[in-house]
Amino acid sequence: MLMLGFAGFMGILKIALMALAAFGLFDAAFRREDAFRAADKQNKVFWLIILGIALVVSYLFTILSILPIAGAVAAIVYLVDVRPALQQVGGGGRGWGRRGGGSSSDGPYGPYNGGR
């Protein structure tokens, strides 16, 4: 009974690590190449290869081996270090449905000036 619970926990952890690597991979795929250079990070192809390998390794191997742990570290480094730097340089990714940096009097086509 205890082993069944442990196997279930490890399965959930494996799915979470795969989701982490997949999110990083898709996020890196939709970023611009020049944003990576402007943020002074490795290039886009490097991160796509690293995150793709992390996704494949986390799928193929058990979570107790070293390769999925290394893949999880790579995905965490991308999400914690590279992604915020790319957002800061590119100005994108402010959130779903949030307007960034406007005032409360802004309309859909620019600021509302009261009919002046």
Description:
Helices cover 66% and strands 3% of the residues. With 116 residues, it is mainly alpha-helical. It has helices at 2-29, 33-38, 44-60, 66-90; strands at 106-107, 110-111. It starts with a helix and ends in a 5-residue tail after the last strand.
Q: Which descriptor suits the 3D outline?
A: elongated
Enumerate how many helices there are, as a single number.
4
Find the count of extended strands (DSSP E, 2+ residues): 2
Mean pLDDT: 82
| Spatial arrangement of strands, main beta sheet | 1-2
Which residues sit in consecutive blocks of at least 5 with pLDDT less than 50? 94-98
Query: Which secondary-structure class do the elements indicate?
Result: mainly alpha
Our estimate of the beta-strand percent is under 5%
Helix content: 55-70%
Biggest sheet details: 2 strands, antiparallel
